[in-house]
Amino acid sequence: MNQVVHFNTVSDYNQFNKNNTLHPLVSVVDLSQSDPRAAHKMTFDVYCVVLKQTQCGDLRYGNNTYDYQDGTLVFFAPGQIVEVISEEVYQPTGLALVFHPDLLLNTPLGKRMQEFGFFSYHTSEALHLSDKEKKLVIECFEKISYELQQSIDKHSKMLITSNIELFLNYCIRFYDRQFITRDNVNKGVLEKFEELMNDYFSSDKPQNIGLPSVSWCADELHLSANYFGDLIKKETGKTAQEYIQAKVIDVAKEKIFDGDKSISQVAYDLGFKYPQHFTRLFKQKVGVSPLEYRSLN
Questions:
Q1: Can you tell me the distance from the alpha carbon of 64 to that of 22, in angstroms, rounded to the nearest whole number?
Q2: In the structure, what pLDDT confidence band is assigned to residue 69 with cuts at 50, 70 and 90?
Q3: The last residue of a domain, from among 181, 209, 226
Q4: How far is CA 36 from CA 87, 109, 137, 290, in A?
Q5: 174 with 189, same domain?
Q6: Are residues 53 and 8 in the same domain?
Q7: Dist. CA 242–CA 232, nearest whole Å
Q8: b/e string for 99-111 if b means 16 or more Cβ within 10 A?
């Protein structure tokens, strides 16, 4: 059975990786100082971002190798369980930024954490860095590390959290770039999403399961819900929920012309529990009610 390691505090993560704890709520960790390790599981009660110093071409993203050969960023949030798979003992290398949620209390960053959805991405959806991006990340880590080596004063928390926020803002930009550079992969996801929707509404799943949710679609495509939602938004300009609703309306327009079915029956066939919810959505998207649409056409 693989070892299970629990990181309840920043100090726990430092001790596991043989680093000193300079601040109880935040640390920049040199992973090369840690002991060699084998496969293991980790649970987190802290935020953790790992910059892997490894040849990423040896790793896989679905059926594709990573975009770049010079490093990846992987994000973990409190409550996550992570499994490291390795057939042999290995020596970790790279840097990690780890910080406790309490560090964010009463800070501008604390109010923005929900904007950084990549903390909920799967590890297979890691951020793959170019040389310039990797240099910027290391510079951000160095600024945080510099502050940790100073005596704690009234400016420390603001400077540390500001630099973490700067780093996370860069990560938003880098992920936007990655969505563009992985355009072929993204187009494949869109095609599979459209096929998934077609298969769904041509089956009895709407009557048995109901309307397809964003999380269900993401699971079917083997993506995290946040990554899937961000990808669809970047590619189509619509949220994943809006995309699903548009598909529902397209299918509804065809079914409405079945004169043998009432509008209520059409709603149930599409997966709505209550016909009035279907009528409200249809009028919102089309401008007229389903019954009016049937009469007009």
A1: 40
A2: very low
A3: 181
A4: 13, 34, 25, 64
A5: no
A6: yes
A7: 10
A8: bbeebbeebebee
Residues in CB range of 155: below 8 A, 6 or more apart = none
What would the two tokens of residue 292 be?
């009016």
Task: Give the pair of three-digit tokens for residue 168.
Answer: 């996370």
Task: Let me know: does 277 contact 287? Beta carbons within 8 Å.
Answer: no
User: Is 166 found in the same domain as 24?
Assistant: yes
How far apart, in whole angstroms, are the C-alpha atoms of residue 267 and residue 273? 8
Averaged pLDDT, 240-244:
94
Please say whether the beta carbons of 127 and 118 come within 8 A.
yes
CATH of the domain at 206: 1.10.10.60
- Is residue 51 within 8 A of residue 98, CB to CB? The reply is no
pLDDT score at 90: 81
Instruction: Find the length of the chain.
Output: 297
Model pLDDT, residue 89: 84
Quick check: 51 and 92 in contact, CB under 8 A?
A: no
List the alpha helices (DSSP H) in 75-213. Answer: 108-112, 131-148, 156-181, 183-201, 205-209
Residue 291 corresponds to which amino acid? L
Do 143 and 205 reside in the same domain of the chain? no
Please name the residues in contact with 34: beta carbons below 8 A apart, sequence gap of 6 or more: 16, 17, 18, 19, 92
Using CA atoms of 271, 274, 277, 278 in order, give the dihedral in degrees to the nearest 10: 50
Residue 129 in tokens: 């860095």
Q: CA–CA separation, 233 vs 1, rounded Å? A: 41
For 109-131, what is the mean pLDDT? 89
Amino acid at 185: V
